[in-house]
Design brief:
Blueprint lengths: L5 H28 L9 H46 L4 H8 L7 H13 L4 H12 L2 H16 L3 H66 L13 H28 L6 H18 L4
Helix pairs in contact: 1-2, 2-3, 2-7, 2-9, 4-5, 5-6, 6-7, 7-8, 7-9, 8-9
């Protein structure tokens, strides 16, 4: 799995925002400068398409970065276990890390190679571990780097201390997995709530407002403009469709962000949910509302 550097994430975000703003300005400029031009979609629908295009690259980058960070955290206990096993043979902590780095720890392996390269260039173990924690960008990596630094300072039975550290890390990961397992269903609740909201909007448009308009037109035609429905002659079904569409878009944006925050603890993780919900909204209205 690829590693996404923070500067690369910022670059993707800037380019995506610039693309979205460009589409917004181009749409508004076209409407103002060329009022007679027929756009392929209405202006608000074009903006939603532009928003999905703008959010897709940051959502993809954030997803890949989270996968990489999980790969780091997943392999840390294996690394600590190997360091403890190497310590039993009498190797020093630095040499134990070097021997352990020869194994495959997924995305953790390249970071270990860089850590050893820094040591070979004359950096202290503390500085190399600090740089490793910064590169890994996970709380678990920072804790492990701090604990290993304290082990190197204190000396003593490295093997026993590393086993205790490994036990502590396993407990932390167990807690994180339990939290993830408990919170993940809430993202499903967000999707269910959004589905109910979207379904209700479509049903209101197709079965309630449309039927009222049809009944109103029939009564007005037969009664010459009078009757029970004469007072609601200003109802605009197109306006109602757009209002409900905008409300569903708002629900999709904030619902996706909330789903990511609750399930994975980061708003950035909700971008993929937002893109998915926006796509569902657009396709649902395209098939069941605008096409009717």
């Amino acid at each position: 799995m690829p590693k996404i550097e923070p500067k690369e994430k910022r670059l993707v975000t800037i380019v995506s925002v610039a693309l979205g703003v460009t589409m917004l300005v181009a749409t508004i400029a076209t409407l103002i400068l060329f009022p007679g031009v027929t756009l392929p979609l209405q202006w608000d629908r074009l903006l939603i398409v532009g928003l999905m295009i703008a959010l897709f690259p940051p959502a993809t980058v954030e997803y890949l970065d989270l996968r990489w960070q999980r790969g780091i955290d997943k392999n840390i206990p294996s690394l600590l276990r190997e360091i403890a096993e190497s310590g039993r043979t009498g190797l020093t902590l630095t040499r134990a890390i070097e021997v352990s780095s020869e194994r495959d720890y997924g995305p953790l392996t390249p970071e270990l190679k860089r850590l050893l390269a820094q040591l070979s260039w004359g950096a202290t173990l503390e500085d190399a571990l600090h740089a490793f924690a910064i590169r890994a960008r996970t709380k678990l990596a920072q804790r492990v780097a701090t604990l290993i630094t304290e082990v190197s300072r204190s000396g003593g039975d490295t093997q026993e201390i590393m086993e205790q550290v490994n036990h502590h890390i396993n407990e932390l990961q167990t807690i994180d997995r339990e939290r993830y397992t408990q919170m993940r269903p809430y993202s499903v609740v967000v999707y269910i709530a959004f589905g109910v909201f979207l379904f209700t909007d479509i049903m209101l448009i197709q079965t309630f407002f449309t039927q009222i308009i049809n009944m109103q037109n029939k009564v007005l035609q037969s009664a010459g403009g009078g009757g029970v429905f004469g007072g609601i002659g200003s109802v605009n079904i197109s306006l109602l469709k757009e209002i409900l569409f905008h409300a569903t878009v708002i629900q999709a944006i904030f619902g996706g962000l909330i789903a990511g925050k609750m399930s994975e603890g980061k708003l950035g993780a909700g971008l993929k949910h937002t893109v998915m919900l926006l796509l569902i909204t657009f396709m649902a209205f395209l098939l069941f509302v605008w096409g009717v």
